[in-house]
Structure to design on (137 residues):
């Protein structure tokens, strides 16, 4: 907690220093006193603007990809009575596309394929960015 308080104190001190420098740079009419003061202020503003995103920083971050076949709702009583060989009816029709989720967000739909004795998925539809944003709300 002391470390956070120290960071807050330093942030406040820096903010006060910048505000004081800005007050000294302006004349009473709001104009800059000299060209150097203008360049200092514009340089600080430039430093605050966000840089273009650097995708290299995130390319190695692992994400969880999940394929959703379907789902159903059932009371706990029925869940506890399930046994080996029981059949649970899902809310999808046979042949419907599976949902492809990345970290829980729908990004595509596809169909199951077999590749060298392993299951895979062939993407048949990629969700538009607008749909992805809608699913987050």
């Amino acid at each position: 907690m002391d470390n956070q308080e120290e960071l807050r104190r330093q942030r406040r001190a820096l903010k006060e220093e910048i505000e004081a420098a800005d007050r000294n740079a302006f004349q009473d009419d709001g104009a800059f006193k000299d060209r150097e003061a203008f360049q200092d202020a514009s340089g600080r503003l430039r430093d605050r603007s966000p840089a273009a995103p650097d995708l290299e920083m995130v390319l190695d971050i692992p994400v969880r990809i999940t394929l959703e076949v379907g789902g159903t709702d059932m009371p706990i009583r029925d869940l506890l009575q399930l046994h080996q060989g029981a059949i649970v009816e899902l809310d999808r029709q046979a042949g419907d596309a599976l949902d492809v989720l990345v970290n829980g967000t729908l990004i595509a739909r596809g169909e199951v394929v077999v590749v060298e004795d392993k299951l895979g998925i062939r993407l048949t539809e990629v969700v538009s960015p607008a749909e992805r944003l809608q699913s987050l709300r």
Q: What stands out?
A: The beta strands are 65-68, 98-102, 105-115, 118-126. The mean pLDDT is 79.
